[in-house]
Amino acid sequence: MNNKLYGKLIFELSHPGRRAYSLPKDEFGSHELPSAMRRAEDAALPECDEMTVVRHYTNLSENNFGVDNGFYPLGSCTMKYNPPINEEMAALSAFNNIHPLQPLSTVQGALQVEYDLQRALSALTGMADFTLNPCAGAHGELTGLMIIRSYHETRGDSRRNKVIIPDSAHGTNPASAAVCGCEVLEVKSTADGLVDFDDLKQIIADHPDDIAAMMMTNPNTLGLFERDIPAITKLVHDAGGLMYYDGANLNPMLGVARPADMGFDVMHLNLHKTFSTPHGGGGPGSGPVGVREGLEPFLPKPHVVKNGDKFDIEQPERTDSYTVENNHVGPFLGNFLVIVRALSYILSLGKENIKMVGPLSVLNANYIKESLKDDYELPIHGLCKHEFVFNGLKDKSTGVTTMDVAKRLLDYGYHAPTIYFPLLFHEAMMIEPTENESKETLDGFIEVMHNIAKEARENPEIVKGAPHTTPISRVDDVEAAKHPVLTFRQLAAE
Amino acid sequence: MAKVIEGLYYTESHEYVKVDGNVGTIGITDYAQNALGNVVYVDMPDVDDEVEAGEEFGAVESVKAASDLNSPVSGKVVEVNEALEDKPELVNQDAFANWIIKVELSDPSQLDDLMDAKAYEEFCNNQQ
Questions:
Q1: Which of B38, B123, B124 to mutate to test the interface with A (most CBs of A within 10 A)?
Q2: Are A482 and B40 an interchain contact pair (Cβ–Cβ within 8 Å)?
Q3: Are residues A139 and A181 in the same domain?
Q4: Under an 8 Å CB criterion, which residues of A touch B?
Q5: CB-based contacts of A454, cutoff 8 Å, min separation 6
Q6: CA A494 to CA A342: how far, in whole Å?
Q7: B20 CA: distance to closest CA in chain A (Å)
Q8: Which residue, of A161, A170, A228, A260, is most buried by count of CB atoms within 10 Å of its CB?
Q9: Same domain, A311 and A164
C-alpha cells in the first residue's frame, strides 16, 4: 500500500513551526554548548505532527521487502530466515541494559555468550580461536589481513606485500588487500569456473619471496567447490604465504567441511549470512575472524578468555606499536547483540541439526538449477553448492536481458537474484535459495521464472518494461549514476 | 557480433591500440563496451603520466561494474580524450572513434605481444 498523501517525502509533508514533541523541564540547570560549537542557522529538518510522522513511516515500511515478506534468492548474500527466538534472546534485559564498562563480575553471563560463540565458531571451522570484534565481513577481511601482516613482520619478514586473489572473488577482497597496503595479483579461472592451477603456479614462480597470502572463497562465487584446494594450499604455504578463507560462502559447508582442515590459516565469517542474524538495511553485521593454532597471539584485543570458572577480558598492552594484536579493531567486543543472536541460532539448532544446513542449502540450489536450465543458460554444468550462476536467458534472440528478468520478478512478488556478478559472465544471474525454503516455495519461483522466459519469447516488451506493479517503475540507472539527486533541496531546486 | 577493426592491436583485456608513427591511440573495443553496458564514467590519467604495458592506467565505470583499463603498451601520455569527461556515453556510441588516451610508445616491440584483428576476433568468439 502506498498512500498518496503519506507516501510523499517527509519534507513535502512539512509545515513550518509544526511540532510533535515536548521536552521535560531541565532539572540540572542550563548547560548550553559554547557558541563556537553551535550551528549558525537552524538545521533544515522537516516539521510534522506526530500522526503524519507515524503514517509516513508506516507507509514506507509497507513498501519494504524482506525475507519475512517473501522468497529472497539474492546470491552470495545468504538471505536466510532470521528466527524470532534470536530476537527474544537479544531483547533480554540482562543483555540489553548492560554497559561495556561495568565491572566484569556483573556481566559474567554476557562474557560467557562471547566465549561460547568463540568456541562454537572454532568447533565449526576447525580454527583455534576467534575474535568477535569486527563489525562486518569486509572489516573481518581487513582484520584478517592485518593479522597475516603482523605474523610475517614478527618473523622479520616485512617484504611480503602481495596478495593472490581469484578473478571470481568478491570485490571486497582486492579492496581489503589494498587498504591493508598490499598489492593484488589476480589468478585466472578455468573454463569450468575453478582456480587455474597453472596460472597460480606461474604467479608464485614470478613472486617467489613476497607472497603474503592468498584469499579464497570456497565454494567460490560460482557456487563451485574448489577441487584443487589441498594442492593450492600446499603451493602457497611452500612459498611462505598464508591461506585466507573468505567465509561468505560457508553456508553449504556448515557441519560438513571445515576451512582449517582444508589448510586455511585465517578466516572470517559473516554472522549476518551463515548464522541467521539480520542482513541488509544496515544489519548491523558481524565479521568474526578465526585463526589456526599458533596464530592466536595475533588476534586483536580485547578478547574474552576463561580463567577457571570465571570469564575475563584480555586487554591490549599499552605500547607504541600499531600491530593488530595490541589494538581495538572495533568498539569494545563487537556488535554484542548480533553475537547473542548468532549463539541463539547455533544453540537452537544444536550439534546434529546444524549439519543439515549445508546439505539442504545445496539440495535447494541444485533443484532450482536443474529445473530452469532449459530456459536459462547454465554456463557450468554439474553439481553446485549453495548457489549457482545462469548467464541470462538461453534464447538470446529476444533481446531480454538479465536486468529485465530481475525487474520482472518484482512484479511477481519475488526479490531479484544477484545480477551482473560474478563478472566472468556478461549476463550473470546468481541464485541462492538457502536451506529454509519449502519445496512449494521453490516450485513457485521456478514456475514464475519459466513464465518470464515464455513472456520473453512471446511478449518481450512486457519484460523489458518491468516492473509494472511496484510503487516506483524502472529507474534510469545511467542518469542516476551520472546526475545523482541526493537531497530534497536538490530535488526541489531542479 | 562485435565490431573489430583491421590494422589495430588488441589485448586480452579488450583494449586496442592504433599506431601512427610513434604514437599509440588507446581505447576499449566494441566488444568491451557492449559487455560493460552503459558507461557512466571514464577515469583517465593526466598528460605526461607514464603508463606501462599490462598495467592499469585508469578505469571505466558502467551501470554493471567498474573495470580497470590496462595499457597495451608502455610510454608517456601525450593526450587524453577530454570529451569523455562530460560524455562518457560516447564510448558506447563508437568505442573505436572515441579513444581514451594517446601514448608516445617507448618500446614499439611490445606490439608483437598483442593480437591482430583476426586473432582478437577468434579470442572474442571463445569468450562467454
A1: B38
A2: yes
A3: yes
A4: 379, 391, 420-421, 423-426, 477-478, 481-482
A5: none
A6: 46
A7: 32
A8: A170
A9: yes
Confidence of residue A489 (pLDDT cuts 50, 70, 90): confident
Q: How many CB pairs under 8 A join A and B?
A: 25
Instruction: Please indicate, yes or no, whether residues A429 and A303 belong to a single structural domain of this protein.
Output: no
- Is A93 contained in some domain? yes
What are the CB-based long-range contacts (under 8 Å, 24+) for A91-98? A95/A336, A95/A337, A95/A340, A96/A337
Q: Could you write out the DSSP letters of every residue in A49-60? A: -HHHHHHHHHHH
For residue A369, which amino acid is it? K
DSSP secondary structure letters along A356-379: HHHHHHHHHHHHHHHHHTTTB--S
- The strand pair at B75-80 and B66-70 is best described as unpaired
Cα separation, A362 vs A188, whole angstroms: 25
Range of the domain at A472: 353-480
| HSE, side-chain direction, 13 A CA sphere, residue A62 | 12
ipTM of this predicted structure: 0.80
- Is A393 found in the same domain as A299? no
> Is residue A246 located within the same domain as residue A147?
yes
User: Is A153 part of any domain?
Assistant: yes
- Out of A289, A323, A347, pick the residue that ends a domain: A347
Same domain, A282 and A389: no
Residue after which a domain boundary falls, among A292, A315, A347: A347
Q: How far apart, in whole angstroms, are the C-alpha atoms of residue A120 and residue A101? A: 25
Cα–Cα distances (Å) from A188 to A167, A197, A270, B44, B116, in that order, read: 6, 9, 26, 26, 23
Residue A372 placed within a domain: yes
Total domain count, chain A: 2
Question: Which DSSP string do the residues of B12-32 spell out, in sequence order?
Answer: TTSEEEEEETTEEEEEE-HHH
Q: Which of A237, A262, A242, A215 is nearest to A149 (CA)?
A: A242
CB-CB under 8 Å, B38 with A477: yes
**pLDDT per residue as tens digits for the range A347-367:** 999 999 999 999 999 999 999
Cell of A176: 581489503
- Say if CB A270 and CB A286 are below 8 A apart: yes
Report strand pairing: A183-187 vs A162-166: parallel
Q: Residues A211-241: pLDDT tens digits? A: 999 999 999 999 999 999 999 999 999 999 9
For residue B28 the three cell numbers come to: 576499449
Specify whether A115 is located in the same domain as A239: yes
Q: What is the mean pLDDT of residues A274-296?
A: 92
- In which residue are the cell numbers 571445515 written? A258
Q: Are residues A99 and A177 in the same domain?
A: yes
